[in-house]
Amino acid sequence: GVDLAAISISATSRNSSTRCHEPPHKLLWSLPTFPSAMEVEAGEIVATSDVHVTLLQDTLYVGSVPAGELQAAAYPLLKAIIAVPCDTAGLFSFTQEEDGLTLVMDDRCRAAFDELGEASPVTYAPHKWRAFEIHLGTLAWEVPGVVAFLSTSLAESAVSLLNITSSDRDYLLVAEADVAAAAEAIRERLQ
Fold first, then answer.
1. CA–CA separation, 133 vs 121, rounded Å?
2. 162 backbone dihedrals φ, ψ, rounded to 5°
3. Which of 23, 81, 104, 133 meets the CB 3.0–4.6 Å disulfide criterion with 93?
């Protein structure tokens, strides 16, 4: 097999002041195969004294609402946030930008938007996502670079990601098809 780490290093270290501009497909032609996402169980992926990485159970959806449709999204947005006060499980995040909202949500929150049927202002990404929760506990503010380190590790394994950060946790979202490769890359780097 091909040593992907060696390929990445040689491709990025030709000249330390410039980045490699070769198309990624030239670097990734011999990727290992991994079990399907369904074969990777939710739960703890890595647990050390400093960091815990957990694969969350829920399937996630990424969607966007254009700026002109924000009013139409108001009710389902509120419902997704506060509809069931005791239900704090799952994941819901929204980011407002000048061109609209980006939403990351589990099934419960998506249902609030789907109730609008054809009138729903949300356009969803073409595939489903899963989240790896990174928890550093009391070290969260003292250990810079953990997300960058894991992002680099996933990129070297040809896994794209989305990142969400809260006050004490980080979430790395990967497409469902990439869960096994992501879990393996995280285990390799942190154990």
1. 28
2. -115, 145
3. 104
